[in-house]
Design goal:
With about 280 residues, the protein is an all-alpha fold. It has one domain. About 65% of the residues lie in helices and about 0% in strands. It contains 16 helices and no strands. It is globular and about 55 Å long. The relative contact order is 0.15.
Length: about 280
């Protein structure tokens, strides 16, 4: 567990990356020797709990993406890769909640990231107090070794599941034109990241893929973290379908207790309208 701390200065990585989602994505990629700079950059819009809305901490989104990246590399069987990504992401959420007692950014940072004044004050305090002030910087130091341990455990566990294994998040980016690797990268978002029931994984996947494509087409431009037009398009399409509900367990009116239960739900047409609307956004 201490190996991560010895290899990289976690606070410096966080500061250099600029967002918690990209930082954890990068740190876990580093552990697995995966190099994905464009994909990591695209995860910026998941920081602050999906486009700064305060839902699941960006560290979870970034960690799940890194797990999906490694699952694709390890397993030729794409059903196995999908199931493994979901399973490992579940362990990631569990360990995160044990440490923080909440998966949601708004409960941890206690900052409204969409409020530019609050955001500026947060950054100034972080700089002035040498990273000591920020609960986010302290959290990444404490939790990253646990995240690496849980990712390795989840990626290696034997999992029982039926074929085909389906993730809602994988389905949406496939419809958007994603490669097989990209679709597995987001597989762990299923059911609100690891079937946790939190904010919709398909929504997170659509925003990430939208920003990945945007980044490839705008190599010399930086994306706006405030009022990003691409993210707003995806969110608008999603809110229309769900009447502004974001939590997976409320949208689906159930919690998913197994990978098969989630797969069966999607195969039977569950969330079909949401997936199609996100893909077309």
């Amino acid at each position: 567990m201490e190996a991560v701390k010895n290899k990289l200065n976690l606070r410096k990585v966080f500061w250099k990356c600029g967002t918690c989602s990209r930082a954890v994505f990068h740190l876990l990629n580093h552990e697995f020797d995966n190099v994905k700079p464009n994909e990591e950059k695209a995860s910026d819009m998941l920081a602050g709990g999906i486009a700064q809305k305060g839902h699941q901490c960006g560290m979870l989104w970034g960690g799940s993406l890194a797990i999906g990246t490694e699952a694709f590399r390890r397993y030729r069987d794409k059903d196995m890769a999908t199931a493994t990504a979901i399973n490992a992401s579940r362990l990631l959420v569990d360990s995160f909640q044990r440490r923080t007692h909440s998966a949601n950014c708004r409960d941890i940072a206690k900052v409204d990231w969409e409020n530019k004044f609050q955001f500026t004050i947060y950054i100034l305090k972080t700089i002035a107090q040498g990273f000591v002030f920020s609960p986010c910087f302290n959290l990444i130091v404490k939790w990253t070794p646990e995240a690496v341990q849980d990712a390795n455990k989840g990626l290696s566990e034997h999992i029982n599941y039926n074929k085909p294994c389906i993730s809602c998040s994988t389905e949406v980016v496939k419809k958007m034109g994603a490669t097989e690797e990209e679709s597995i990268m987001v597989a762990g978002f299923a059911g609100g990241i690891g079937l946790s029931g939190y904010a919709c994984g398909a929504l997170g996947a659509a925003i990430w893929y939208k920003m990945l494509i945007w980044g490839k087409n705008n190599l010399n431009n930086s994306q706006s973290m405030f009022n990003n037009p691409e993210a707003k398009k995806v969110l608008r399409a999603f809110y229309i379908q769900t009447d502004s509900e974001v939590l997976c367990k409320n949208i689906c009116s159930k919690n998913f207790n197994s990978i098969d239960e989630h797969s069966d739900y999607i195969k039977s047409g569950g969330c079909k309208n949401i997936i199609e609307a996100l893909a077309e956004s």
